[in-house]
Design a protein that fits this description.
The chain is mostly helical and 211 residues long. The protein has two domains: 49 residues, Arc Repressor Mutant, subunit A, CATH 1.10.10.60; 134 residues. 69% of the residues lie in helices and 0% in strands. Helix 5 runs parallel beside helix 8, helix 6 runs parallel beside helix 11 and helix 7 packs across helix 8. The N terminus is likely disordered.
Amino acid sequence: MEKTDEQDSGWRGSRELWLGAAYEALIEQGVEAVKIQPLAARLRLSRTSFYWFFKDRSALLSALAEMWAERTTMPLIAACDAYAASKTEAMLNVIGCFLSDQAFDSRLEFATRGWALQDAELLRRVQEADQARLSSLTAMLVRWGHTQEDADVRARTIYLTQIGYISMQTREDTETRLLRVPHYVEIYTGQAPSAAEMDRCRARLMGQAVT
């Protein structure tokens, strides 16, 4: 079999390529699969190519942890802060974030939570992220008139429900999830979304995979 590495072609890959391979290994097999030699074999590059882009495996794992924050916590907080004309529309912004893998990477969230069970520092980061996400949800509800105590409980209901979906790896097709969305919004906010708000939500989400 022809060997492809930098000795043959001069191609060492790129930081993004190595990180992408590490991402796939993490979500498919867990953190134990994120090792330099298996990644090199996956990419058909030499092991030494890795060191052009990362100091060591720890640096790669740190980059994966940053990717997780960028693909989960940051978009959720942005959704909580996004413009909305009503509190039901604000809640649809949040639900829409969770429903779209292009906004909230649920596979990476699941894999990272499993990884955190083996890594005390990452577990600390996950727990901090949980608090930051809950704080953003609570603040959003307070802005829309809920008391601090009420907003806290509603935020926990929203968040723990969604983490439950992810932890149980629940799969629902788009139509099934969309049929349930108005009921979730009413439970979370005390008000049902309007037909126009649901139409806009549907228009944003149709054609995107939901989990």
